[in-house]
Amino acid sequence: MASATTGYQLKCVANGHLNSEEETTTYCTQCDSVLRVYYDEPSDDIQYPLKELKSDPMKTHPSALKKLDRLSETYGADLWAKLEFEHPTGCFKDRGSYIEVQKALELGADAICLASTGNMAASVAAYACYFKIPCFVFVPEKTTDAKIAQATIYNANIIRIKGDFSTCEALCREFAKSGNYYLAGDYVFREEGQKSFPYELLEQNGDDFDYVFVPVGCGTNFGAIWKGFTELKESGKISNRPKMIAIQPEQSSPVVEGIFKKKKIIKKQVNTMAQSVAASDPVDFHKVMLGIEESGGSAHTVTEDEILQSLKEMAVEEGHFTEPACALPLAAFKNNIDKFKDKKCLFILTGSGLKDTKVVAKHSLSSPVLSPDINKVTNYIKSGFIEMQKDSWGKSRDTFMANLKMDEDHEKLYNEYVSKINKKGKTLSNNEIEVLQSLIFNEDLDLEYPVEVLDYKVTMRKHGLVQAAVKLDIQGEEIISESKGVGPIDAILSAIRAETNSVFHLEVKNHEVEILSPDTDSLVVVTLTLANNDQEWVSKGASPDTLEAVIQAFTKGLAIAMKSTVT
Questions:
Q1: Residues 236 and 349 in one domain
Q2: N or C: which terminus of the chain has fewer CB atoms within 10 Å of its end residue's CB?
Q3: β 8-12/18-19 pair status
Q4: DSSP labels for 346-385?
Q5: What confidence tens digit (pLDDT) does each residue in 150-189 have?
Q6: For the chain, how many structural domains are there in total?
Q7: What is the model's pTM?
Q8: Cα dihedral value 100, 102, 106, 110, nearest 10
Q9: HSE-CB of 7 using CA atoms within 13 angstroms
């Protein structure tokens, strides 16, 4: 059961100052620290800081509590998972958005605004859409349409801002103050929604866990879960609280570092594949530290490789495809197995793997396109590539490319690539050979290239734009195209697209440049994400010359796009 109540106060966790929710729903007006709801009296039911509680319009059932049978047997422990990706938008944040949107309506807000590029945006937008209140989502300029597609379908107003996420967040705060707008995010009323987790766990008879493993970014969910356990104990519903385990990626771990140093740490920059927990400024650090201290818990980091391996293991052994952040609990458990062995442990799986398929795509070998010939299929299976795909996850390329057997046609194409590279005076290293083999093995040999770059020239100056001129063969006609750009890649692509857009319009949504060694003549792999309306294609090029790799990737991507459209 759940109940609304007006019997509560908003207190600053730092100095105990009482705040009015008419003045702030984010930080203390006195010292800018985080706030927490304190109820006047304990209750047998879960309490929410609302005058009237509307039932959740989208949630139809609790997220499942599931025994991880195979992993339990493998590691000699009693392992369970709470499948938080079963929420309506595929993420645990729906617990908080459900309450936060109602609070915005109760306060008479004209709209909700937030800065987000992922789960938060989708969740708030979904509940705002249902409760008929406008939602404004501020995102950095380079945010892909795919990342905000879920928020877009829920009628969110997407505001793209030039700059990084911190710029977006600052502007969103300014926007909230400019009108009667509720600023959503990892603040006090979101915590109240997400504290429902242990209450739901109790209903599922899950009140006897020794440890609860929580992936941590800003720390709001961790703090909320501990608050829920504390309220349950104060009301007499449970006698013991579990030990709380906070886990962060090694490359994004201000909370863990802060726990050991006993003070809040703010990082200038964080970088991890587990984007949903990538937080440089953990706003609820003190709530995490309190939960660990009161529960007798601990904080741990895991490496990017450990995230990859545990992500795969959870999918293969238990059938759960999750976002990378969900791999943190299993990885931390394995790293400290002597401590947790024979204990009953709960892993919180926060979000669906469909939220971030890019990680899987990046760390998996894609399958090559085969001609519709049974002999080609048979030879492909015999090549060992399928087994290599399965074994390659999270491993370096040189580990899995050694036993690759190319078919005759791909071998010929590979030799052509190597010959062109050698003519430039470049000798490929073993690692570079393996990367090139992987790229060529995935080449579609039936592509028809409508455009060929015959020659190009780039003129750069210390000041001003870069000038590029390209000589193109477009369907048999030679054309000279010139353009300018902020850098050589921008200039060369602009010059090519100035003419090829008449053949097939493509936007460059994203580009990645991978330099394979510290040598000045290193092989460079360029990956382009190209788009036409709502369709996207990914293409790669490889060369010691970055611009040539860019040209390869674009012309190949154009051929791929045109072929798929015709098909």
A1: yes
A2: C
A3: antiparallel
A4: EEEE-BBGGG-HHHHHHTSPPPPP--S-HHHHHHHHHTTH
A5: 999 999 999 999 887 888 889 999 999 999 999 999 999 9
A6: 4
A7: 0.74
A8: 80
A9: 7
